[in-house]
Fold:
Amino acid sequence: MLCGMTTVHPTPAPAEASSPAGGQAAHRGRLLSLDVMRGLTILAMILVNNPGDWGQMYWPLGHADWHGLTPTDLIFPFFLFMVGVAMAYSFAKYTGERGRPTPAVWRRIARRVFSLIALGLLLNASGRLISVPLGYSDSWDWATLRWPGVLQRIGLAYLFGSVIVLTLGARGQAVAAVGLLVLYSLLLDFAPPDVPPAERMTPTGNIVRVVDVAVIGEPHMWTQATSHPTDPEGLLSTLPSIVTVLIGYAVGRRLRGADAAGGRTLIGLLAVGGLLAAAGWLWHNGPHPGWGQYVNKALWTPSFVLVSGGLGMVCLAACLAVFDRYGRESPRVRRVATAFEVVGVNAIFVFVASGFVARALTVFRVSDRTLKDWIYTNGFVEPLHTVGLNDPRLASVAYACWFVACWWLLLAWMWSRGWTIRV
Structure:
């Protein structure tokens, strides 16, 4: 379900993989379309996280300024949505005869949560871990180490989502999801009490930032974007991200109990996903101020939960239709699926490893500039300028595509060797 960096497991080479049967991928007991969608999402995540120049990006490759939505804003919630889908398959293998969680389940959950949070903190500290031993910096400066992060949020959302789905039935899970969204909406609308209502959804006046400053401390928060000082993976905004996991779990449970690529299943996913996304967008454009109505990724507002969860269902339905229903007998479609699957089975590994390498490129120096700047300038900016392509955004995205391609080649080699790296 989630991949980490602690154990290498040999897996069958692509030629040995079992083919989808009965509309559902049987490849090593995993849902093929889930690995495909996860792989596509991780590749997109690496792409948007590694531009050649952060000041030169096409708008779809950047986050919305504050309220609103871009394709980049959907990447992280899509991944959490898939965490929930995968939980429905994984937990079914580790529960007792009556469907009750066994001690092994709780041990696996605890180990994975610890590993994800530890990897997240290690990734945040990677710049220091590289620069100080090599003499590029003479101070560890732990006082400014960022504590929140993408992996930390995945770990926390996975932990609380797991507790909910393993201790409550379907109705209880639905009540918990609605309750979390209502509670979070009330907090966004009515807190903090000393801030004027019109400022409670601003980058500096929202309750998420207030809680993070009080509990974590501003030096340990996201401070690179001074105009948007709210940490996008804050403590309080983890609450609605749990709902994103629960939406995914509900979808996974439905897929396990039906023909996953059957016509009725696909129509149902498209219909429910479309309704959720429409409801979230209507909430964003509603006539009443407040109530956390705006679609906002940094705050993970309830409307954002509905829009991203609904679109996640639509995208998964599309993957099921293409790769498990209509394309399961096509060698060409199977090759396309494999191209993304090689990434999806090592998702957390490549996210962490690519993050370490990206930071290393900004630490190592060539003459008077970083290695990243040297590669970017000499490998992309100047060659494109030579052929008359002077748009700096093109050079920036070309560098990001090169970075993605390098990691895909490594993952394809690992796939050919049958290697997956997991917690």
Notes: The beta strands are 7-10, 365-366, 369-370, 419-422. The longest helix spans residues 392-417.
